[in-house]
Design brief:
The protein is an all-alpha fold. Helices cover 69% and strands 1% of the residues. It has 19 helices and 2 strands. It has a two-stranded parallel sheet. α7 runs antiparallel to α8 and α7 crosses α9. It is globular, with a radius of gyration of 23 Å.
């Protein structure tokens, strides 16, 4: 097996393996370091042979042993670590080798509930989820929050220390304690899905493993708290978006815009399930929940934020035309609340293109190219610049 295939397995399994290791060793940083050790071992062992039948269980078992080795090396100068090492060894002995994947399925949900503990501010909950569940680097998380990498590293460090020192339990809480965390849990599950639906950086437009995991977690949550409209609404929203996955890119990995997609490639079963869930969510009683509301203006009213305002402006362009939407975008840009947000120049570029203001549109597309780290978007912007320059259009 070549290193590229091994890296793909690791990327697909890393999030859930990390969640289980955090439960087993009781420390975020130790679990992350041990998983990296396990990946290094996989690169060495799997090159010469077929990967194990259950790669995730293999990574967890090796990672747990690596954690014990790491702690043992610290025993000489940290007496507290000796106690931790002993406890990990006891846990390892009592549980034995991890082999049954079904035993591990709730670990990711436990991790999300830990990240969404009410003692954390919303931005800390999101940052922890991006780092631990989505597997983004600290630099990528920092870009998502428009802060420098050092500041984000300190924010994440303080959050992990608080989990350890305050003894925040790594568990899905009892039913009466679910409610205070539900909003945050739904937000981070959608965040996991969003990273899978449109990756933050890299060569690939999508990470289907994360999208599938978010849908799986939402199904678990729906079973845990049935008849909740906001949960069904989120599940519907993700299913409807994910149903278009196979039509969203070409074989070469280029973006296919909605109006150009081959609808025969959409997943009809997922669409039908999503539509049914939307109806159930809207019939669940009470005011409409944000995940069940499809109109951007409703989302703006329920959960205002600069990013939602940007989405709202894009929706306005489809109703009132690009000129009105451009006014909203320029006002948003003037406020400075989205400085550095990579989609702002891209949306502005598209509106200028539709208005025929090609010189300004090309400049905006170049600005968008300069800040995006996702290669399919770079190629899309290059195609748009080429089209407005009168050059031949690249095949899609």
């Amino acid at each position: 097996m070549n290193p590229g295939e091994i890296e793909k397995i690791f990327r697909d399994e890393a999030g859930r393996a990390l969640a289980t290791l955090i439960r087993l060793v009781g420390d975020f940083d130790l679990a992350e370091d041990s998983l990296q050790d396990a990946f290094a071992a996989a690169l060495e062992h799997w090159r010469a042979e077929e990967p194990p039948a259950n790669p995730r269980a293999w990574l967890i078992n090796v990672g747990r042993n690596k954690a014990i080795d790491r702690v043992r090396r610290l025993v000489a100068f940290r007496g507290k670590q000796q106690q931790l090492a002993h406890q990990i060894e006891l846990d390892a002995a009592s549980e034995g080798e991890v082999s049954d994947t079904t035993v591990l399925d709730d670990d990711m949900l436990r991790l999300i509930f830990t990240c969404c503990h009410p003692s954390f501010a919303a931005e800390v909950q999101v940052a922890l989820t991006l780092r631990t569940v989505c597997g983004l680097t600290t630099a990528q998380v920092a870009r998502a929050f428009l802060v420098n990498e050092e500041a984000m590293a300190q924010r994440l460090l303080r959050a992990k220390q608080k989990i350890r020192l305050a003894g925040i339990p790594y568990e899905v809480p009892e039913r009466e304690a679910l409610e205070p965390r539900l909003r945050g849990v739904l937000a981070v599950i959608y965040l996991v899905f969003t990273e899978g639906y449109a990756a933050t950086a890299g060569d690939d437009l999508m990470r289907p493993d994360l999208a599938r995991e978010a849908i799986r977690l939402c199904r678990l949550l729906d079973a845990l708290m049935p008849l909740r409209g906001e949960i069904k609404g989120l599940l519907a929203l993700m299913l409807l978006h994910d149903a278009r996955r196979h039509g969203r890119e070409t074989a070469a990995g280029d973006i296919v815009l909605l109006e150009e997609q081959d609808r025969s490639r959409w997943d009809r079963r997922q669409i039908d399930e999503g539509l049914t869930l939307v109806e159930e969510a809207l019939r669940s009683g009470g005011p409409p929940q944000s995940y069940a509301v499809q109109a951007a203006i409703a989302a703006l009213r329920i959960s205002p934020s600069p990013v939602i305002e940007l989405n709202h402006a894009a929706a306005v362009s489809m109703v009132d035309g690009p000129a009105r939407a451009l006014q909203l975008i320029d006002a948003l840009q003037a406020r400075g609340s989205l400085n550095g947000y990579e989609l702002l120049p891209a949306v502005r570029a598209d509106l200028l293109r539709r208005l025929g203001r090609n010189d300004e549109a090309r400049a905006a597309y170049r600005a968008a190219t300069a800040v995006t780290r996702l290669e399919p978007l770079r190629r899309l912007y290059a195609r748009r610049i080429s089209e407005m320059s009168g050059e031949s259009r690249s095949p899609i």
